């Protein structure tokens, strides 16, 4: 099936971006929200997206024609004719279950129902319908009109045909889809948050300042450092994700208490004017970033808590900050994903590059350095810092088998267990 008519539920940040990319490949789109004001805001944002395309060379007539493919609505009335719906409403399971139940009643039997959830269970959402084989996760990255990656996540009962249609649609939208098996955090957030969390421990240990850590990581090949990213994403959102991943994966994701201290103090990042850095709207372009003066006290409070938990192991002998300290947890988590057969080895670097702008490939790095080197480094960090660095069993097994890199996994899946 080729998608010709689609609907997007939720005209917020993600929904408007997704509606824009759908219309850009000639698909008619219904953009639905609960109130007309929200619909109008969403349409206004899409208009701005097309205006900026015109500034970059798109013909005005073409932009007008594509924008006209998007129709705003507050009702489900016209959903009888859609081939596919992408839901991008609030990240609350009760909201999503209600929406999918309604969609199942209203949409034609052929329609595929996709969710852009960041972390909720695709299988649970699918179970609210009588067509779980037609429900799939399509996880876009923010801003959806620019970021290339879409994680396509089948639920337990999703059919291969549904996955195929979702993958084809992504390619039609000029996106880079990666198929990811359902697991908490899916692929990119699961991998990325090991690095974000480790950066907090580095800060707590006083090995470097937020600017030093950010600068070193950028030098290593990431588009921005962890603290700039924390402030941009929102400390409250990150604290929630950290807590969720810990609840699902245990000690490997043991969260630094620092984020909770910052949330309690209202230091939520750019949106409140202060996070790790101060965000002064009147600051001149190019002006050096200023560290939040309240940060030191919050670090001291977090350190008291870290010292009293058994799962974390602050390093006794600080020796400055090596970017590997925050990069290796991502590599290790990628290997855990391979071990669980969440994703194909080749897709990990594609996903991190297109979802987060990584210039370095984690799997490419493992290939260059060799798996024995990866295990040796992770083992040393594991001894120094505890469970957050426990090497994935697959890595131990491959090194034992004298396998140099993951390319052999592409030839035949290596059974684990
Ligand atoms: N913002 C991100 O960085 C990001 C990235 C990837 C995925 N997501 C996911 O995308 C979804 C939307 O996130 P967002 O940032 O666009 O949120 P948002 O708050 O900007 O927009 C959500 C919109 O959904 C509308 N809405 C709520 N309930 C609705 C309903 N029953 N019917 C129709 N519309 C409804 C709201 O009025 C609002 O306009 C969430 O599931 C989120 O986890 C967000």
Task: Describe what you observe in this structure.
This protein is an alpha/beta fold and 417 residues long. It has two domains: 5-179, Rossmann fold, CATH 3.40.50.720; 188-410, N-(1-d-carboxylethyl)-l-norvaline Dehydrogenase, domain 2 (Orthogonal Bundle), CATH 1.10.1040.50. The chain contains 18 helices and ten strands. An eight-stranded mixed sheet has the order 3-2-1-4-5-6-7-8, sandwiched between helices. α1 crosses α2 (36-55) and α7 runs antiparallel to α13. The longest helix is centred in the first third of the chain and has 20 residues, at 36-55. 46% of the residues are buried. Residues 413-417 have low confidence and may be disordered. The chain binds nicotinamide-adenine-dinucleotide (NAD). Residues 9-15, 32-34, 38, 88-91, 95, 99, 116-118, 140, 142 line the site of nicotinamide-adenine-dinucleotide. Nicotinamide-adenine-dinucleotide is lined by residues 9-15, 32-34, 38, 88-91, 95, 99, 116-118, 140, 142.
SSE ordering: EHEHHEEHEHEEHEHHHHHEEHHHHHHH
Biggest sheet character: 8 strands, mixed
Structural class: alpha/beta
Question: What fold name stands as the CATH topology of the largest domain?
Answer: N-(1-d-carboxylethyl)-l-norvaline Dehydrogenase, domain 2
Number of discrete domains? 2
Mean pLDDT across all amino acids: 93
What's the level 1 CATH class of the largest domain? Mainly Alpha
According to DSSP, the number of beta strands is: 10
Alpha-carbon Rg, integer: 22 Å
Terminal CA distance reads: 38 Å
Count of helical regions = 18
* Proportion of helical residues: 40-55%
Q: How much β-strand is present in the residues? A: 5-15%
